[in-house]
């Protein structure tokens, strides 16, 4: 079933989101949190893949306050630089309000069977971590989140499952930051860390500079099983 855009009426305004449904027409919900390139073809492909796996996927436009409908290509240098500018401009706290509103919209969707979680990449990986800590997401996955080490205390009351994929050679998450994350979360009862020692940032982005089919396949397989176990 082809995905389509819907509109979410959030507390701060209306914004769009890409929605993909499984062939059955219903399933658990997964909120997909974008990279710094907006809701582009890659994010839509992730949603479509989740739908094929039986989930109702929803990817909100978190850059709408800066410019609605941004779609950037990491292979085009000016667009890559624009993406880094957007990362600097992005208001995390405002974005978290949008995420909470989008998650509520997803859970209320007639196609959603009731349970809903979230997953995100890069900037979205950080936002996924914060979503796990601050919202009622029932299971959350973060891929190579940037800046988690500065917010470790957010997880002090976390009691729902969180899976974090960590790239060992991540150019944006140095070894010292990864060590801090491990020290804080290895003993945590509901946080699972998965390491990919030889991979760089965005190793799971198809056609990306650091894409690894092997590690992406491992991470994506773990993610789907993790979400099914928690949300089904």
Q: Name the CATH architecture.
A: 3-Layer(aba) Sandwich
Q: Provide the β-strand percentage band.
A: 15-25%
CATH superfamily: Alpha/Beta hydrolase fold, catalytic domain
What characteristic shape results from the CA principal axes? globular
- Secondary-structure element series: EEEHEHHEHEEHEH
Low-confidence stretches: none
Give the total of beta strands. 8
User: DSSP helix count?
Assistant: 6
Portion of residues within helices:
25-40%
Structural class: alpha/beta
Count of the separate structural domains: 1
Look up the CATH topology: Rossmann fold
What average pLDDT do the residues reach?
97
Radius of gyration: 16 Å
- Identify the CATH class: Alpha Beta
Distance between the termini: 20 Å
Summarize the main sheet: 8 strands, mixed
Short summary of the structure?
This protein is of the alpha/beta class. It has helices at 41-52, 77-89, 92-108, 123-134, 175-185, 213-231; strands spanning 4-10, 13-20, 27-33, 56-60, 112-121, 140-143, 162-167, 191-196.
């Amino acid at each position: 079933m082809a995905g389509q855009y819907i509109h979410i009426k959030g507390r701060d305004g209306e914004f769009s989101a890409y929605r993909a449904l499984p062939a059955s027409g219903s399933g658990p919900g997964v909120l997909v949190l974008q990279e710094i390139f907006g809701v582009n073809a890659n994010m839509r492909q992730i949603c479509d893949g989740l739908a094929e796996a039986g989930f109702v996927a929803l990817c909100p436009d978190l850059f709408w306050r800066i410019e609605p409908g941004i779609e950037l290509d990491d292979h085009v240098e000016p667009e890559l630089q624009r993406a880094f500018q957007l990362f600097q401009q992005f208001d995390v706290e405002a974005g978290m309000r949008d995420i909470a509103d989008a998650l509520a919209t997803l859970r209320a969707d007639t196609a959603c069977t009731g349970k809903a979680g979230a997953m995100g990449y890069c900037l979205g990986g950080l936002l996924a971590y914060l979503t796990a800590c601050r919202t009622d997401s029932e299971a959350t996955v973060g891929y190579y989140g940037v800046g988690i080490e500065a917010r470790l205390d957010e997880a002090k009351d976390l009691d729902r499952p969180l899976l974090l994929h960590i790239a060992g050679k991540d150019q944006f998450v140095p070894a010292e930051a990864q060590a801090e994350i491990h020290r804080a979360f290895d003993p945590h009862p509901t946080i699972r860390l998965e390491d990919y020692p030889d991979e760089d940032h965005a190793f799971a982005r198809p056609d990306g500079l650091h894409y690894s089919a092997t590690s992406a396949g491992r991470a994506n397989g773990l993610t789907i099983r993790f979400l099914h176990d928690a949300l089904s």
